Amino acid sequence: MKKLCFVIMGYGKKTDIYSGETYDLDKTYLNIIKPAVEESGLECVRGDEIQESGIIDKSMYALLLHADLVIADITTFNPNAIYELGVRHAVRPYSTIILKEKNDSIPFDLSHNKIFHYEHMGNDIGATEAKRCIKELKLLISNVTAKPETDSPFFQYIPSIKPYVLSEEEYSSVIKELANKEKHVFAIVEQAKKEMNSSNFIEAKKLWAKSLQKVENEPYFIQQYALSTYKSKDPSERTALHDALNIINKLDPNNTNDPETLGITGAIYKRLWLLDKDIEYLNRAIEFYRKGFQINNDYYTGENYALCLDFMANEETNNEERIYYKIEAKRTREKIIEIINEIFEQDNFEQRNDIKWIYATYSICLFALDKKYEEYEKKFYTTITAEWEKETYEQSKKQIINLKKQEE
Length: 408
Description:
By secondary structure, the protein is of the alpha/beta class. Helices cover about 60% and strands about 5% of the residues. Helix 9 runs parallel beside helix 11 (about 260-275) and helix 13 runs antiparallel to helix 14. It is elongated and about 85 Å long. It starts with a strand and ends with a helix.
């Protein structure tokens, strides 16, 4: 799940009360802040995208407390933006970035804070300046999110104060209310993710469908719509799988190198094979998983590629072909272990959002190769957030156990 960046600032054209200069702040958001945040891998939401009015409400307070990062543009000293920045500083010791147009002075109370400056031409941001700011803001976002340091004057002066923590129940209630209003796709997507974490895939697929009504042809939404559809088994498992195939085909899996699309397509065909035992389904599953692994060294598609090879070896009557499938499965798992060992050594490993699946894949590959796997299985179990994640892992493990029994 992506981290959330909440942006507080004035909207549209605003005039600086001290200099008399007018700036189109929407240009700052669209040309600098939003691209820098999204290229940093965070979800970007501005206040007006979730508000019913210009008045701060409980959804604003919830996001000011909950957001992993807040960016506050105080250009023109918009009263609402200054107030919201104060709320953020009062509840979060760190992970707040302040932006301001380079001209004019800075209020004394904020003069000790680090402030990111940019140059605005009034009606727009220059292309060169926008490019510079995006690059430098991305670096700042990376530093702030990787190594949190106290940036709130309130917590700097009174470090003994304990910050308030918004409960998951309170936050979920706010997100559900926003999603029901269908005010912004952000809330619909957040609610869809929560339904998936609760294994409520029927409701999740409805929400992903709604998100696609607001943002057509968004690959991530299509992928999650397909995933929740086949996992819903609604109205039946077979029908849900064919529905999911129709959805993922919008991303043209035969002509893509995207590992997520290839992985979901392979998963659909694998489940169709398990259901109907039509060998062509297994052939297609192998092809999509193989492509995802060989092009991108993607560990997830690689592990499923190896499992499908084991399935095929069990079906094959030609002994030479059977041996080939088993050897290829073994080599694939050994290669995956090498790939993941390199991932473990990366400096930013702890910041990855796929840690649970790295542990799951590593454990499954070690288990299949009759090596010690228990340590990584335990690590996987400590990182899961949804029951279906555990079920997916244990199903793969059970399938390997059954294959080994058939070989005895």
